[in-house]
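User: I'm preparing a small set of examples for a lab meeting where we compare how different chains pack in three dimensions. I only have the primary sequence for this one, and I'd like the structure in token form so I can line it up with the others. Please keep the answer compact; I'll paste it straight into my notes.
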Amino acid sequence: MLPSDPPPYNLTNELAKERTSAAADRTLMAWIRTSLSLIGFGFGIPTLVKAIDSTRLGDRLGPQPWANGIGLLFIAVGIFAMAAALNDHRQILMRIRSDRYVYSSSKTAERVGLALLAVGLLSFLGVLLKALGV
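Assistant: Understood. Below is the structure token output for the 134-residue chain.
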């Protein structure tokens, strides 16, 4: 076998690459659904708050200026999640196509979780401060 010859074909390895590629595609689709949900929440929160403001309950609560900001944060986290997921997917496919596959865990879920934790804490503080009349 010459150095320029391709490595011998191994059906087991090729099928494993197919399964890994399909798993990466399913993971990307899950991240797309998650991102769309976050973006939908971002649009829904201000709309819901406006609907509450137009009722008698809204008269007692008063205006909620934080709603648009929280909505924008959810949209930003959704966009970040989509970008990170697409980057992870591209890197996984590149590793699968290379001759030397090296496993590397993705940090996308951890990063998105931390971003959502920050949004949740900001939301909680906004509501708490409003309830305390600050």
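A couple of notes for your slides: The two ends are 78 Å apart (CA to CA). Residues 11-132 form one domain.

User: Perfect, thanks.
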